[in-house]
Amino acid sequence: MIDGTGLSARPDVRAFYNSGPFNLRESPERHAASLRAGNSLLDYPPLVAALADQPRVLDVGCGTGWLVNGVSLRYGCAAHGIDASTVAIARARSVAGLLGVASSFEVADLFAYRPQERYGLVTSMGVLHHTDDCRAALSHLGKSFVGDDGAMFIGLYHAWGRRPFLAHFETLKRQRAGEESMFAAFRRLWRGAGRNDRDEALLRSWFQDQVLHPHETSHTLGEFLPLLDELGYELVSTSINRFGPPPGRDALPALEKQLELAGEKALAEGRYFPGFFAFMARRRRHSARA
Predict the structure, then answer these.
(1) Given the DSSP bridges, would you call strands 104-107 and 119-125 parallel, antiparallel or unpaired?
(2) For the chain: N or C, fewer Cβ within 10 A?
(3) Between β-strands 146-157 and 79-83, what pairing exists: parallel, antiparallel or unpaired?
(4) pTM of the full structure
(5) What integer best gives the mean pLDDT of the chain?
(6) What class, spelled out in words, does domain 11-158+219-253+276-287 have in CATH?
């Protein structure tokens, strides 16, 4: 499916995540149990704050449904997820059934998807950088999916913060390390970061997503600020300064470069640090659709 921009989900990315969806646990039961046991949405305070208003939520690139099912379970919001992977959507639906929540899911290409109604909150965590044009993907979300006075919460790989992690595994590849050797290296970083989950299927899915994926790009928040202006959005907060007041545009480049130092420090200490950032942007009132 291709929209008017000539863009669609990459076939290699779609095939990759059909063969091994990200965040896949050993069984739907273990997946449901993990959502009952903890609330990972608390890692994103502005997202949790936005959920207090009970918006209709659309998660773009929902994968196995951790966010959609978590939103439905913890906050009672009407939440819908779309993803290009049929396997991921099947798992998301199974988990929703086990949890007894009213989440809904469908297989869809983000560029071709046209919702019947706009959403109060649109999320996309770690997805848009797997498209051929992250800027076009973000623009499409902002124009087509978000309702009047709505917001979007976006997570992407960071150009500076991601660099040490990528360099580490590129070095292993140049040394002709096999897949299992690289998996062992990833496991050490995972454990070093205090991630104690013993679900081997989950660990393998993270390794595949982080190291073996066919395509990704990395970005800075600064590069998207002009696009947010163009779309009629204002920055609410970002993980780059731990979701404090929005950083000034002059101060932002120095803050962003610090993420590379954080990545280097994590590697030196044997900890996993993917180099990921998130931001919340809200539609300005004067930009609401007529």
Answers:
(1) unpaired
(2) C
(3) unpaired
(4) 0.94
(5) 94
(6) alpha beta
